[in-house]
Specification:
The complex is a heterodimer of chains A (314) and B (689). By secondary structure, chain A is mainly alpha-helical. In chain A, 79% of the residues lie in helices and 0% in strands. Chain A has a domain of 174 residues: MetI-like fold (Orthogonal Bundle). Chain B is an alpha/beta fold and 689 residues long. Classes of the chains: A mainly alpha (314), B alpha/beta (689).
């Protein structure tokens, strides 16, 4: 068990290392001179030469990457070309917002999706199933940003009941927070809830067909007990694996939602820095996102370990 | 006792001495808008206190559905009608509804059930102890601590070592046989009156099967439980049941005391079944008599006898309607229009004399010789797939196959019989030893050189469903070996050969354009045989070729294989776990245990005078479909279960389970030694005798 956790942690570090190296090399290909970007185009050739050496641009890419890595461990991710501020500082301001959105949205969509999924599976073929499945199918097939724009138009422009932009943390101003977050959170979570509902439904139905459920019935156990003790955990194990992917998807999805609702998060930052070819920021963003994803998958594995005894046996 | 002669009312429970009485059970499942599947069509059974009843029938006969209907385990949209009375319960149980308190107190409380698949019948994520005590608490209403004590007590009774530790383990930590023991413990812990074992041992090895059934038999006495054994295996009910119900097409066609059923079967179907199964004590040349035709489809069943289409005794009056079970006296009931005397009178006219198998032409020519064959598989571990050990799947196996001969290979799962087949087919390259095809060693040949031999050794596979490409036409499946080996020149020649092959295996060549799913299981196996024959092979390796088929169909395929052998001079290597079938078809038998040959002998001699203790145990684990003859046989019981090949004991592989094992057996590996008449055994004890 401990060995398993250690193995997963080790794999995570290897993945992070590879991701950082690949992005470093790939972004290096971008057609933008870091010196002009940082110091403006009025740098003299002599100054250019000095900076060129100071920044180590004359060294091979492996060495530069290694230097970057050393700096990374010192907590220095370079300076943004666009903001002329340390990257760490910029990211620090934004990542909290995105993480907050992603985590809260996951926390909302999983329990709700699972709940709806369980209802549809247990009430299979009844009106509850038909209605919920229909709604889930519709919401899963409309892209989130379409809903976002429609809601923005209705609530913020037409009826003017909700603000169309901005973000406040709940501990700063709770009222503002709720007003600002309700639409983005709805758009961010809707697809997730729908998808999880459908996946939970099929997974639960699969679990109900298993021989051990028949065994449980043959023991004369109560139907509700059979569902909660024998079906639920087996049915939800495959759903738990989705948490990692969902969290990862959230970060991608928030790019749209943050842009539509002008929320100053990683999504907005990523779009802006790609537009301005802000190399150090892109690099840091990719690293942060992949770090979050690795962490999400690690959490998934640990959840698996907790719910499925067969894994710790192997 | 006739099951229909009592007044049924609210207060009636069961007649004196009975535990369960089910009358006129009809179980249907909707098929499409108009039609429905009638799985059980008016079945009445009863179970007396202290008896073991066998419910036998082939697949689709409705035997499992009957037992599940009684317990109300049929889920909607399936529908159960009829009348089920249980001792001490008022009224018809079916009236209460499947989730009522009454129905639930019967399920698990009064009647416990064990299912076929030990691997999937326990919840993988709950500890076995939890699953046992859950049943106890539900039905006995004791505290969790008390339930745990009872559970551990029951686990001890079913033969589980270290029950305190095992209590907290998950199903994945148990072998198939052990899981079935857990199931028995779970069911019996709630102190039921009735235990239903629904094909409970079908998925297990023969020796484990015997252990489990003997356990059920002895627990039935000590725990005061009556048992219903639901099975397709006639031998099992002959050995373990007291009374038998024979089912066909959702009806009970015959019921009675086991001696009556096996000695003087009344119904043509029962007679047919008994003539179709090979028996261990058969004379060598007995030919099986298959039941022609196919079992009825449960959609739109006829209103008259379901067996009519396949019955040799049928008359026009059979179609007048379904007849009742006729009392033949002495609790023997037969559902047939014809009386016993009428059947006897007709017997001479309709029964094709059992006859003998076609003559074999065994020559001295050795077509295949396996010498000291070894096959090891590496055990890999970790991310880098380091090799940490080897599994010796086949070790020092040697035997010869003569032209026209059938060599049977028997053994339980993990004995290496399939690995051996794969080596002979050269799907695997053995690590050591020789495989001589007509004197040429093909064991380590390169694929290019091997090509010319590929057409000479072919294979028939176990599963007729998955071993045929579902999207290929039957003609193309059979023709593939011809095309690959360039055996036919022109298109016309190719077509003629395929028609010939179809006729050879008893299929209409018109069926060439059909795809596998349009054929029945037996017909599919015929296609498999035609494919194996296509390239004119000398040797056919048959890996469990009939184990997936029902007994009536099995006999058809076995007869076909015997005919083909006589006609074409083929040699068979017949691999199976069913000793009766292997004994029936083989001339010589090789008995394997954990990758080693422990005994080899001519088939008759092996049955008459087995030398190795494992052979003895294996033989005695297989019941004969004649209860009296079976009772007189010597019974050798085995200790424990087949160990994993990963934990091969040093010395004789069988030593740990052998009741005669000495210290020497645990240290040295006995080698095969000749004991005359072509019999060889690898056991130190044979010398001492």
């Amino acid at each position: 068990m401990g060995k398993y956790i250690l193995k997963r942690l080790l794999q995570m570090i290897v993945v992070m290392f590879l991701v950082s190296f690949l992005t470093y090399v790939l972004i290096g290909i971008m057609p933008r001179d870091p010196i002009y970007s940082l110091y403006g185009s009025d740098v003299t050739p002599a100054e250019y030469e000095v900076i060129y050496h100071r920044m180590g641009l004359d060294k091979p890419v492996i060495v530069r990457y290694f230097n970057w890595l050393v700096n990374f461990f010192k907590g220095d991710l370079g300076t943004s070309y666009a903001y002329h501020m340390p990257v760490m500082e910029i990211i620090g301001q934004k990542i909290g917002v995105t993480l907050y959105l992603s985590i809260v949205s996951t926390l909302i969509s999983f329990p709700l999706g699972m709940l709806f999924g369980i209802i549809t599976a247990v009430k299979r073929g009844k009106w509850q199933d038909t209605t919920l499945t229909l709604v889930a199918n519709i919401s899963a097939s409309i892209p989130g940003f379409v809903i976002a724009i429609a809601l923005l138009f209705l609530f913020c422009i037409n009826w003017k009941i909700l603000p169309s932009r901005g973000f406040t943390f709940p501990w700063e101003n709770f009222g503002d927070h709720i007003r600002q977050i309700i639409l983005p959170m709805f758009c961010l979570s809707l697809g997730g809830i729908a998808g999880i509902t459908r996946q939970t439904r099929s997974s639960m139905l699969e679990a109900m067909r298993q021989d051990y459920v028949r065994t449980a019935r043959s023991k004369g156990l109560q139907e509700n007990y059979i569902i909660s003790k024998h079906v639920l955990r087996n049915g939800l194990i495959p759903i738990i694996t989705l948490i990692g992917g969902r969290l990862a998807g959230m970060i991608g999805g928030s790019v749209f939602i943050e842009n539509v609702f002008s929320i100053p998060g990683m999504g907005t930052l990523m779009v802006n820095s790609v537009n301005q070819i802000d190399v150090p920021v892109i690099q840091a963003c990719v690293l942060m996102t992949s770090g979050c994803m690795c962490l999400a998958f690690f959490i998934t594995d640990m959840l698996y370990l907790a719910v499925d005894p067969r894994i710790s046996l192997k | 006792m006739s099951d229909n002669n009592v007044v049924l009312n609210e207060a009636y429970t069961v007649s004196e001495g009975n535990l369960v009485e089910a009358r006129n059970i009809v179980t249907t499942f909707p098929y499409d808008r108009e039609r429905k599947i009638t799985a059980v069509d008016g079945v009445s059974i009863h179970l007396k206190k202290g008896e073991i009843v066998g419910l036998v029938g082939e697949s689709g006969s409705g035997k499992s559905v009957t037992s599940m209907s009684i317990l109300q385990l049929i889920l909607p949209p399936g529908k159960v009608e009829g009348d089920v009375r249980i001792e001490n319960m008022k009224g018809n149980m079916l009236d209460y509804g499947m989730n009522s308190d009454e129905a639930r107190s019967v399920r698990g409380g009064k009647i416990g059930m064990i299912f076929q698949e030990p691997m999937t019948s326990l919840n993988p994520i709950l500890k076995v102890g939890f699953q046992i005590q859950e049943n106890i608490i539900t039905h006995l209403g004791v505290s969790p601590e008390e339930a745990k004590t009872l559970a551990i007590e029951m686990m001890t009774k079913v033969g589980i070592a270290n029950p305190e530790i095992r209590y907290n383990q998950y199903p994945a930590e148990f072998s198939g046989g052990m899981r079935q023991r857990i199931m028995i413990a779970m069911v019996l812990a709630a102190k039921p009156d009735v235990l239903i074992a629904d094909e409970a041992t079908t998925a297990l090895d023969v020796t484990t099967q015997a252990q489990i059934l003997e356990l059920i038999q002895s627990l039935a006495k000590t725990e005061d439980v009556s048992v219903i054994i639901v099975t397709h295996n006639l031998g099992l009910v002959a050995r373990y049941a007291d009374r038998i119900y024979v089912m066909y097409g959702g009806n009970i066609v015959e019921s009675g005391d086991k001696y009556t059923i096996f000695e003087t079967p009344g119904h043509p179907y029962t007679r047919g079944l008994l003539a179709a199964v090979p028996r261990l004590d058969d004379p060598k040349d007995r030919r099986l008599i298959p039941i022609e035709g196919l079992p009825p489809t449960p959609i739109n069943l006829p209103k008259y006898c379901k067996f009519y289409d396949r019955c040799k005794y049928r008359e026009d009056r059979c179609k007048d309607g379904m007849c009742e079970l006729r009392d033949e006296g002495n609790e023997h009931y037969v559902r047939c229009v014809l009386t016993k005397d009428e059947i006897e009178a007709k017997k001479a006219a309709v029964e094709t004399e059992s006859g003998t198998v076609p003559e074999k032409h065994i020559t001295d020519e050795v077509v295949l010789e396996v010498k000291d064959l070894q096959m090891f598989f590496p055990i890999l571990k970790g991310m880098m797939k380091r090799k940490i050990g080897e599994v010796h799947a086949v070790e020092d196996v040697s035997f010869k196959v003569h032209k026209g001969e059938t060599v049977g290979v028997v053994g339980e799962s993990g004995c290496g019989k399939t690995t051996l087949a794969k080596c002979i087919m050269r799907a695997l390259t053995p690590n050591g030893g020789e495989i001589l095809y007509k004197g040429q060693n093909i064991a380590h040949m390169k694929e290019k050189e091997l090509k010319q031999f590929r057409s000479k050794i072919t294979m028939i596979f176990q599963d007729p469903f998955s071993s045929l490409n579902p999207r290929q036409k039957a003609g193309d499946i059979v023709g593939e070996p011809l095309t690959i080996n360039h055996l036919t020149g022109s298109r016309a020649e190719y077509n003629a050969r395929i028609d010939e092959l179809f006729r050879l295996v008893g299929l209409d060549p018109q069926y060439r354009t059909r795809v596998p799913r349009e054929f029945s299981g037996g017909q599919r196996q015929r296609i498999g045989i035609a494919r194996a024959l296509a390239s004119n092979p000398d040797i056919i390796v048959c890996d469990e070729p009939v184990s997936a088929l029902d007994v009536s169909i099995q006999a058809q395929v076995i007869n076909l294989m015997e005919d083909l052998q006589s006609q074409l001079g083929l040699s068979y290597i017949f691999i199976a776990h069913d000793l009766s079938v292997v004994k029936h078809i083989s001339d010589r038998i090789v008995v394997m245990y954990l990758g080693r040959v422990v005994e080899t002998a001519p088939a008759e001699l092996l049955y008459d005078n087995p030398l190795h203790p494992y052979t003895k145990a294996l033989l005695s684990a297989v019941p004969i479909t004649d209860p009296k003859a079976d009772e007189q046989r010597e019974r050798v019981k085995l200790i424990g279960e087949v160990p994993s090949v990963m934990e091969r004991p040093s010395g004789c592989p069988f030593a740990d389970r052998c009741q005669y094992a000495t210290e020497r057996c645990h240290k040295e590996v006995p080698q095969l030694k000749d004991y005359g008449n072509g019999q060889q055994a690898a056991c130190f004890l044979c010398d001492e005798k």
